[in-house]
């Protein structure tokens, strides 16, 4: 009996080989844990068509980073290709779509690896696979550091889909399909053509709000064609609005609108710190001598829009430089704190009215005595601060997400420099602040880590 069981276990094991394929780097900008990793996988490419798959993936990558805002933030992305081998070339077309008169193309069934198919959900051009287990098994076995998978399907027929993994054919406008679908999959954008009642919902670029002072893209209204445009003239579509009439989330071959660009850059900031490395760190300090050199290695957009503010013992020390030198005369006896605060002053974000702001800091603690430097300790922190609703006439909600366990302090100042409110905000908590007694007008909210000012945001009381 045991012998039979062993044979059965061996047979099961032999039927489930590791899904190991060759992986090729197409675009390598830095360490995988410090970049957004796009991973292309092919479906319907046989072993003899893998060179074509790499060509297709390379062309898609080039097209993506040739368009704004990916051009400006190209250094934040790595691109890899997993050479998945299918037994047969192409993809399924069962001829079951109800939105066209079938067959649009010949009915066929293909032995491809991920089981992609046209006619998904009875929509002809919806090219997708529900075999997510196989998709994620391949990623786990070959490139577990992925951030966004994209399945390229070896067919010239137009089609694709968004979702947890983006899918696209490789024919005419295929590169535009991939970029559009990445808008869904990685950046949480909605279609700006009406996607149907089931997919309608509040999002970066979709809302039922019609008040120009409250709509989430209020800071863009009146510029670059941004407004509040209904999806339709009747039915449920008429209750939903988009920000633009000619955005890539509506039409292929046109740019992303300003609202979608802002959403993309916002997501990049939420995923990746612009601080690639810094020195000294806790592992590089070795008998330091004066002058003490401190350096940031930043992932810079093109053109560079990163700004830095350096403080030594809470006093301004330098601005918009990547390195500073500290002299012995700059220090006091005991613990000295050198902090670099980095943020992105990109025109893609209008932070005065934007709900969230991302701040990145490096703090060095320099322990100094008359005998010299005892040690230097360093700490890297990332902060996401959100304030909403803004404007408000009653309660302001402030949230903080950070890798630091320390609280921040918020001080609300009137424009004449008077402090009207001060409170502490805790990590991963919603902090309500009652401003109902404030006079109407504009205020400045300053956020402090210890005694270091790390961010300022405008607050409007109405």
TrEMBL record:
Keyword Hydrolase in record: no
Top-level taxonomic group: Bacteria
Pfam families cross-referenced by the UniProt entry: Peptidase_M64, Por_Secre_tail
Species assigned in the record: Algibacter luteus
Record keyword Hydrolase present: no
Molecular-function annotations in GO: metallopeptidase activity
Span of domain Secretion system C-terminal sorting: 387-458
Keywords: Signal
Coiled-coil ranges from the UniProt annotation: none
Signal sequence, start to end: 1-18
InterPro entries membership: MetalloPept_cat_dom_sf, Peptidase_M64_IgA, Secre_tail
Protein name: Por secretion system C-terminal sorting domain-containing protein
